[in-house]
Design a protein that fits this description.
The protein is of the alpha/beta class. It has a single domain, classed as Rossmann fold (3-Layer(aba) Sandwich), CATH 3.40.50.720. 45% of the residues lie in helices and 14% in strands. The structure holds nicotinamide-adenine-dinucleotide (NAD).
Length: 272
């Protein structure tokens, strides 16, 4: 039976970057269902329809600010908002991300730098900004505060024409291990772990599939969904809520002895 009614994140404050859609939104929804207060950030303006509609649906325990993860100034504004509104931060989900595909010799340096800025600098800046607050906030719990960095199966294995995304997600994996060891050895009250999703049905994946269709690799997007499902032992793609389950576990006291771990949620794709 589901334990959602136990609200086991009551009294915790979470920040989720890239929270207006896909995996980030599913994580925010799960944390709210577990009783946490959640601050979401994304690129959409605060008075845009996606932001207003989503916030109206998520309710009073959620708040939103427009913040670009590549901007240190935006992270400082996010920290001020969290401090003023909640006075603490226990859970940071560095989720915002983008992709880039193509033969390595065709990748533009600007495009390479952009994916590194969002996927890698964004994780670094979020961590750097919130660590002092999270160390203070985490002292109240045996498991401390929790940083959850969203990497990918593409941060574990290479894939043709995905080298830039591979490099960015591999960096997230080892950055997470580095800070995990650093915090633990310094007796700081913060754990850090990475999540490695497989193929998840989100706007990002749909946009990627559409690009493959445009290049003539498939007739329609749904063919690619079927192809990727066929390469996955479980035989289907993931729903974002199935990644949120792992993000809930890593945020909760159930994972109090886990730091520096990589949690793979891929329907068996990398087990083959
Ligand atoms: N969908 C998948 O199959 C999959 C698999 C493995 C890993 N991931 C990772 O999961 C994370 C979420 O992906 P998703 O599939 O939900 O993507 P998505 O595009 O559906 O959602 C990502 C959100 O991040 C936001 N974002 C992008 N750049 C940003 C920036 N500079 N600042 C702030 N917000 C920004 C977008 O506006 C969007 O709302 C990403 O890090 C992605 O690499 C996704």
């Amino acid at each position: 039976m589901s334990d959602v009614s136990a609200q086991r994140l009551k009294g915790r404050v979470a920040f989720v970057s890239g929270g207006l859609r896909g995996i980030g939104l599913a994580v925010a929804e799960r944390y709210l269902a577990e009783g946490a207060e959640v601050v979401l950030s994304d690129l959409d303006a605060e008075d845009s329809a996606p932001a207003r509609d989503t916030m109206a649906r998520l309710g009073q325990a959620a708040s939103y600010l427009r913040a670009d993860v590549t901007s240190e100034d935006d992270w400082l504004r996010a920290r001020d908002l969290v401090k003023d509104r909640h006075g603490a931060l226990h859970i940071l989900v560095n989720n915002a991300g983008t992709d880039l595909t193509g033969p390595v010799e065709t990748l533009a340096l600007d495009a390479w730098r952009k994916i590194m800025a969002i996927n890698v600098d964004g994780v670094f800046l979020g961590t750097k900004t919130f660590v002092p607050m999270m160390d203070d906030s985490g002292k109240a719990f045996r498991g401390g505060s929790s940083i959850i960095n969203i990497s990918s199966i593409m941060g574990l294995v290479g894939y043709s024409e995905v080298s830039a995304y591979n490099a960015s997600k591999g960096a997230v994996r080892l950055f997470t291990k580095g800070i995990a060891v650093e915090f633990a050895q310094k007796k700081m009250a913060i754990r850090a772990n990475s999540i490695h999703p497989g193929f998840v049905l989100t706007p990002l994946l749909n946009a990627g599939f559409q690009r493959w269709v445009d290049k003539g690799f498939a007739e329609k997007s749904s063919d690619l969904v079927e192809t990727m499902a066929a390469t996955t032992p479980i035989g289907r793609l993931a729903d974002p809520s199935e990644i949120a389950g792992a993000a809930y576990f890593l945020a909760s006291e159930d994972s109090s002895y886990m730091t520096g771990s990589e949690v793979v949620v891929d329907g068996g794709w990398t087990a083959q």
